[in-house]
C-alpha cells in the first residue's frame, strides 16, 4: 500500500518562474511538501559536473527528488545515460519520459538497457491529444513492444484533454503505473482547457487516490502539477496539497 500523504510531490515545472534550487526549495517548503519531480528548467541533466551539488542542496533541505522529467528519449545512449546517472544518484523512483516517434522501436531498446543497468524505470508521460502517446491505443501498442521497465506516468488532466478517462487508464495500466500527475482541467465551450486546483475540475480525485494507494505498484509517485498562476503558484498548490491530504 502506498502512503500518498508521505510521498506527495510537486512537479517543479509549476515553479518555472523561480530559477535557482534555493528558490525552488523555498517554494516547496511554503507549499508544504518534501518531495519533488525535478524538471529540466531546474537542472541540466546533461551536465554531470553539477549533479552532486544540485542533489546535495535538496537533501540538505530535506527534499527528496522522486523523479525527473519529462525527458525526451530518441535512442541517443550517451545523452540518455546521463539522465539515469542523475536519477540513480538522487535516489529517484523513475524518469518521466516521452519517446520520439521517428526513433522507435530502437529508442525503446536503449531505454530498457539503461533502466536495467541503473535499476530506474522509465514512465511515459501522456501529453494530451496532440501527443502521439496521448491515447490508450498507442500506449497499449508501446507496452506490447516493451518490457515492464517502460511504464506510465499518467497525467490525469492531459488524459481528459485527449478524450480519455484517467481512472480507466490507471486501472488498465495498473501494473505499469509508476507515477501519476495529479492535475485537473475544466473546459470551456471552445474546448480550451484551464488548470484548476486538483479535485475542483473534472478529475475524480478520490478514486484516483484510492487506486494509487491500494492498487498501484509500490512506490508509484503521486505528483501534483498545476501550471496556472506562474508568478505566484504557491497558494493554489497549497490548496492542491490540502485537497489530496484530506481525501488520502
User: In angstroms, what is the radius of gyration?
Assistant: 17 Å
Number of helices: 10
Oligomer status:
single chain
How does the helix and strand content classify structurally? Answer: alpha/beta
| Portion in strands | 15-25%
Biggest sheet character: 8 strands, parallel, barrel
| Backbone shape | globular
**Mean pLDDT, nearest integer?**
97
Number of strands: 10
Task: Give, in order, the helices and strands.
Answer: HEHEHEHEHEHEHHEEEHEH
SSE blueprint:
Elements lengths: L3 H4 L1 E3 L9 H11 L3 E4 L12 H10 L3 E10 L3 H14 L3 E6 L6 H13 L2 E5 L10 H9 L5 E6 H6 L4 H7 L4 E6 L1 E4 L5 E4 L8 H10 L6 E4 L9 H14 L1
Parallel strand pairs: 1-2, 1-10, 2-3, 3-4, 4-5, 5-6, 6-7, 7-10
Antiparallel strand pairs: 8-9
Helix pairs in contact: 2-10, 4-5
What key phrases describe this protein's structure?
248 residues; two-stranded antiparallel ribbon; 10 helices; 21% strand; globular
